[in-house]
Amino acid sequence: METGNRVKESVGRIQVGAYGMGNFACQLSFTMVNMYLAYFYTDVFGLSAAAVATLLLVAKVWDGVNDPMMGALMDKTYTQVGGYRTYMIAGAVALVVFTILTFSVPGFGDSGKLVYAYVTYIGLGMAYTVMNVPFNALPSRMTDNPKRLNQLFASSMWAGGLGSTVLGMCTMPLILMLGKGVQEAGYQKTAIVYAVVSLPMVLLMVRLCKENPDIAKAKEIASAKEGEKGTSFIGFLKSIFTNKNLLCVYAYMFCAMFSQIGRASTAFYYYMFCVGNMAWASVLMSVGGLVGLVLIPFVPTLIGKFGKKKVVIVSQIIQIIGLVMMFAGPYTNIPYTIAANLVYGLGGGYSACVGAMIVDALDNYEYNTGVRNDGVAFAFNGLMTKISAAIAGSIGLMVMAAFGYTNGADLTERALTGINVGVNIVPLAAAALAIVPMLIFDLNEEKMTAIRQTLKERREAILKEQ
């Protein structure tokens, strides 16, 4: 650790591990929502597929206002405790409460239930924003060491993948065991179990992963020197929409998350009705995540050898191959379906690159303009994830409904085809589109090394002046 006026390095293995633990805890809510909420709303809560699709879209419109406001607020918050960490504590508590409420079925009529679903789901989205936007941006205030940044983001993705995998394997068994044949009770009690597990983990992560005051202060002073360009909300927005490489990452995230989370939100229908084997459903939904757990620890090494851009593009191509295999079948053949999911899972390593690519784009923009707004940048990235996930889930449900899927009704061959199209072909098209913005992204590791060295010297000079 350097002292004096030098920018301090305060991230070690404990912080890298703790940061990953935080994402593991977040997945206990986020993944449960993405995997099971659509099915819960239609077949347990009692809403129509069309009503659920509308609910998801309306909630994400509010996120379009909510997330950037959260990011701007974070970028204006500098405290001894750490502005980002303060919001994470409040968000974690609210997330626990709204996760439980969202997976509870009130004794209301149809109209009352719909209102309840809107209030609790929108509340859940806001709680997740307060927790997750600062969480994703936290590494940029912890360190400016590119190696440590890659390790932090890889740790987060690995632990998040572990959380998704554990949840995929355990949720349905927990629902069945805790509910004792009553789905409403099973979903609510499972949400309570996950809440009890996740909150202490988040609070421990916040305690261990501290913001580096030197880095935060240097960025604050540098942006303030640019006047309203670096401190006003309009300036924040301009720093986003004039950053070409950052927009490329957003476009990529929109398409990639449309593909991945959109599929996850409807995959349960595919395994339940097309594959038709409930005993294997949880395993099949977890295979891809297990492959990612093996792959992600090697991503920093792959980045060092090939660069983030190439790793991301190859990952998307592999995912496309896996989706083609799942659509073409024979999907009722369990060994074949496992193999298809293994291939699909091999394409999951890209996620560990995205956070570091955002930091690349922010460093490059700060180098050229002097303006730096990490909170707003990561807020928009989270917004891309939420909007794309909501639209993808809605479109998947709409495709299924267009082919004749109705909850509780006997399924025709046409309805089964609609499920297969909604779950596999729609995500496949989005995965292919995700490659396009990565071809435009023009930052590489060699260029970023030179830029970061210059930024480090600038920050040290700023701190010496204080």
Mean pLDDT: 82
**What is the CATH C level class, in words?**
Mainly Alpha
Q: Which series of helices and strands comes N to C?
A: HHHHHHHHHHHHHHHHHHH
Strand content: under 5%
- CATH fold topology: Growth Hormone, Chain: A
| Radius of gyration, CA atoms, in whole angstroms | 22 Å
Description:
The structure is a single chain. The protein is built from 19 helices and no strands. The two termini are about 20 Å apart. Helix content is about 85%, strand content about 0%. The chain has helices at about 15-45, 50-75, 85-100, 110-140, 145-180, 185-210, 215-225, 230, 235-240, 245-275, 280-295, 300-305, 310-330, 335-345, 350-370, 375-400, 415-435, 435-440, 445-465. The chain is mostly helical. It has one domain: Growth Hormone, Chain: A (Up-down Bundle).
Secondary structure layout:
Layout: H1 13-45, H2 49-75, H3 83-102, H4 110-142, H5 146-179, H6 183-208, H7 213-224, H8 228-231, H9 233-241, H10 244-274, H11 278-295, H12 299-306, H13 308-328, H14 334-346, H15 351-369, H16 374-402, H17 413-433, H18 435-440, H19 445-465
Helix pairs in contact: 1-4, 1-5, 1-6, 1-10, 2-4, 2-16, 3-4, 3-6, 4-16, 5-6, 5-11, 5-15, 7-19, 10-11, 10-15, 10-16, 10-17, 11-14, 12-13, 13-14, 13-15, 13-17, 15-19, 16-17
